[in-house]
Give the backbone structure.
Amino acid sequence: MNDLKLSGYDLIGDIHGHADALSELLESMEYQLSDGYYRHPTRQVIFLGDFIDRGQQQVKVLKIVMPMINHGSALSVMGNHEFNALAFHTPCPDQPDTWLRPHTNKNIKQHQAFLDEFVGRKEWPTLDDALAFFESLPLWLDLDGLRVVHACWDPRFVGKLGPLLRPGNKVTPELLIAASTIKTTEFDAIETLLKGVEYALPGDHSFLDKDGTPRTNARIQWWKNGNRKLGEITLPADLLVSEENVHAFEHQVFEAELLGYPSEDKPVFLGHFWMDNHPAKLASNVACLDYSVANGGKLVAYRWSGEQKINDDNFHYMK
Ligand SMILES: [Mn+2]
């Protein structure tokens, strides 16, 4: 694939075991299946991670994605679900029968559809093949003209993690252990890059998450610049609209507390955030491509051809 004359990248959001949606999307962008993998004469895919968990076609997804990456017709970053899978299947050093990601009922349930397909599987890709593939995925890509990360571009953590990684921004066994231990820099870095940024609600405010558990931290739109009301920058956007959270909604968040993303920087592409509205940019140079295919939504791509400002006409999905 070295002779490929690239005219751009097609970035594809979180797939979560929905292989039919993936092949349909690739074919609609004129990728053709030949010699066992999808390819395009002049373009390359970049996957945003989260290939697995939830959907019922996880083997089938990896059978599409792994050969594309092996043959150079796609690149990818790691999602939090691939990171979690590595930790789930890695024993704690010196502690028999325990795992970097504990096998609690909650963690097993979240990973069950993957376990059902992969545990005991004899044909390619086996569980070991899948884990070796996850381990090969970079935590971010900083390419000519664009950046790609699963949830949050935080230059501080990119700087701190860089020297701890294998070439190509890939995790090491040591990093996997450190990042599975709370309060380490590695833990905070992986949480931020792969899951995003949280903000502590003021006073004793809380909200109920989708499992009905009270939460005192809100996920925020980390890319926002300038001073903001907290209620205007939460994820999801309507998190604090209830009567009892008026005070939290109005809480002033100062620019210095926010990570932000400079409008003159390279465009950055994200997955992870379960968007449910019409695909569109989040800022002039920030786009999320996770439109919840695993929850009745759609698989979304962005067809990038060098532009610094994201153009809403370049989002691509099956109507
Ligand atoms: Mn995710």
